[in-house]
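Good morning C.,

I know you're traveling, so I'll keep this short. The sequence:
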Amino acid sequence: MYHSVGASDPLAAADVKSPIHDGLPETLRDWIPYNGVTAIKIKLNGDDLAWDVERVAAIDRVTVEAQAKIGVREWLYSLDFNERCSQCAVLARFRAPVEGQGSFRV
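The tokens, ready to paste straight into the viewer:
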């Protein structure tokens, strides 16, 4: 199951500012077991390297924890820089800080 995580989507309960209360999960941590998520599209800024790296790291931390609880060992990430990476060099600068971090491999 594929799940898209927007730039402002809550990852964990502490990130929920205004609960919707519609009976569906409100965080990535809750969506993963609810739907058996094994592929996550991560929406990024593309023009703020530090923010993008931290967002990927935060999503990875939540994902690793949630997948471990349900016994999933493999999942995929895809990155969406919202067409804001004007040069390939931006991707190269992004890769270095995240490669080898947690379960995230570029």
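Safe travels,
E.
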